[in-house]
Amino acid sequence: MSSRGNWGSKVGFILAASGSAVGLGNIWRFPYTTGKNGGAVFVLIYLVAILVVALPVLIAEVALGRFTGKNPVGAFAAVRPGPGGGGPSPSPGRRILKSLMQWKLVGYLGVLTGFMILSYYSVIAGWTVGYFFKAVTGEIQQITTANTEQVYHSFVSNPLLQICLLAFFLFLTVFVVARGVSGGIERFAKILMPVLLGILALLLVRSLTLSNASAGLAFYLKPDFSKFSFPVVVEALGQAFFSMSLGMGTMITYGSYVNKTENLPGSTAWIAFFDTLIAFLAGLIIFPAIFHAGMDPAGGPGLVFKILPVIFAQMPGGLIFGPLFFLLLSIAALTSTISVLEVPVAFAIDELKLNRRKAAWIIGIITLGVGIPSALSENFLGLWNYIWGNLSLSIGALGVAIFVGYVWKTSKALLEITKGSERFRFAGFWILSIKYITPLSIVLILVGIIVLGITF
Ligand code: TRP
């Protein structure tokens, strides 16, 4: 165990895992998805999705990771189905071997998905760095409603710049991950997460004191139930899984570094709380600003990159708040890319016996290659998000729920979950969710994604 690394403290794990969860998903994707889906109704369904499905899956992933002490591939392989869990079983041996290989496949899918998500997520993370520089140099002051589309377009279609930004962001990620679990990931999370909260608080005060802020708050917080629809539910569920970093073994991997004496229900509840709080605050910052500037909240993915710069250019203090906002986004993205890279790195350390430094660099360089098409084409990036960010993550989360619910079994999983805590008050509900509610919800998402072509 010690050669793989461990979290140095309980707070360290909570901050690192919250850092993973809190990312572009919270500050970029959550607000535009909320805007696109009619505001408060989406927020309401999202909160239910977090409590009813995402938190139970988070608990399942962390427990599976801590129980096995392994990366996703190793974790699925270590918990073998059938009696005697772990040893070769005589009679139905073939059947067990077969299912064993299949379950390992869910782990492999997670590692592959890690590569792919890292490749396009880092491109968007690179945009946040690019806009941070635009904000710092004051270039953002020249952005208006009339030219914002063109500024954005010439930025994303500058191939050399895009590849440099991608490489820069991957370099930062590799730099941290190569330094290890407690000396790298945990140390940086302990610095970056409080900075992130501080910036968020500043921006919140600025936004809420803008004129016409109340119209934004009404859109965001007063549900209009006529906006309720099936796609809204699908997008809220998908957003909840993505935001909590579920479905590709990130939380299995982070769970594998957790001490046996730690209280899992307590720590995971904190992670879900921070993740939800920060997404909620991001909306609380962005919607008043949008209504202040009289712009359209349903602007889609361009919300943060095309609309906010215009607002910063007009708003009192925008010269300070603009750079702060994009710095916030970059930090949030970094603690997330770290956690995505950590999955293939842990796999390489455990299964391929590579050392951490080498693993981080090699995987970083491969990811740069895989990311170039996304850096050069927004359409390609969208396709990659559909395949890996929507489809593959949903399949992975379904795999985790079924595996923990029916193969590892909830009774055994609960032994792990309650180790280190006196009791788990919601054990009954957790079982209900993992065995029935979660798999059903994911089937709904898959229908939405595959049949209706919903993408989020
Ligand atoms: N949760 C992060 C965000 O909201 C992104 C992320 C990090 C992620 N690790 C993940 C998403 C693993 C899915 C799976 O931006």
Structure description:
With 456 residues, this protein is mainly α. It has a single domain (10-80, 102-450), classed as Hydantoin permease (Orthogonal Bundle), CATH 1.10.4160. 77% of the residues lie in helices and 0% in strands. It is built from 17 helices and no strands. It has helices spanning 10-21, 24-36, 40-68, 72-78, 93-136, 148-156, 159-177, 181-208, 213-221, 230-243, 250-255, 264-292, 303-314, 318-351, 356-376, 378-417, 427-451. Helix 3 packs across helix 17. The protein is globular, with a radius of gyration of 21 Å. Tryptophan (TRP) binds at residues 20-21, 23-26, 242-243, 245, 247-248, 250, 336, 339-340, 393.
Major sheet attributes: none
Mean pLDDT across residues: 92
How does the overall form come out from the CA principal axes? globular
Question: Percent helix among the residues?
Answer: over 70%
Examine the coordinates and then state which fold CATH places here, giving the name of the CATH topology: Hydantoin permease
What is the total tally of β strands? 0
Terminal Cα span: 38 Å
> What is the helix tally?
17
What radius of gyration results from the CA coordinates? 21 Å
Task: Please mark out the parts with pLDDT under 50 across 5 or more consecutive residues, or reply none.
Answer: none
- What is the ordering of alpha helices and beta strands? HHHHHHHHHHHHHHHHH
CATH class descriptor: Mainly Alpha
DSSP strand (E) fraction? under 5%
- Say which molecules are bound, naming each kind only once: tryptophan
Q: State the secondary-structure class.
A: mainly alpha
Number of domains: 1
Level-2 CATH architecture: Orthogonal Bundle
